[in-house]
Design a protein that fits this description.
168 residues; Arc Repressor Mutant, subunit A
Length: 168
């Protein structure tokens, strides 16, 4: 397989995975392109390679910067901005876990904390069912959050050895 074909196949697959993980396909494709590029790319390079508009490229680059997966690099004598992605896939994984916790679990905790105390007789079936369900969801979300925090703080060697144990 030629490099171009392999690169295109990887970018398409990463885009599909990204959409399964809740991020846009294009955002994942921009990330994949920057991930496998040897040198930083400009927005024009990204637009040309992925056949996307300037607005789409800029929107997704900014989102990836916000996620902490991509950063700007300046080249001497160039007015354009160039972008590069973190190449260490373990660091990428940790950053994605961190961002997903912030964007998904924290809002859930806020809502659960707001609704877990409702007015009414605790002996009423509806009130009791509601509060028990909310309490159960809160306990589960807390355990999930602690597990994700452990993973995001873990050293690569611990994480990989634990993952390998789980696979065996």
């Amino acid at each position: 397989m030629k490099l171009k074909e392999g690169k295109d196949k990887f970018i398409q697959a990463w885009g599909t995975l990204g959409s399964n993980w809740g991020i846009s396909r294009t955002m994942a494709q921009v990330h994949a392109l920057l991930l496998v590029s040897a040198a930083p790319l400009s927005a024009d390079d990204i637009m040309e390679e992925l056949q996307i508009s300037r607005g789409n490229a800029n929107l997704n680059i900014r989102a990836l910067i916000d996620w902490g997966l991509v950063w700007k690099e300046h080249k001497a004598g160039e007015r354009r901005e160039f972008f590069t992605a973190e190449k260490d896939i373990y660091k990428v994984f940790r950053q994605v876990v961190k961002e997903r916790r912030k964007r998904e679990l924290e809002p859930v905790f806020k809502v659960l904390d707001e609704v877990r105390v409702v007015e009414g007789d605790q002996k009423q079936a509806d009130v009791k069912a509601f509060t028990e369900t909310i309490t159960g969801i809160r306990k589960f979300a807390t355990k999930a959050d602690k597990a994700l925090e452990t993973v995001s703080r873990a050293e690569e060697s611990w994480f990989l050895s634990t993952l390998m144990k789980l696979m065996n």
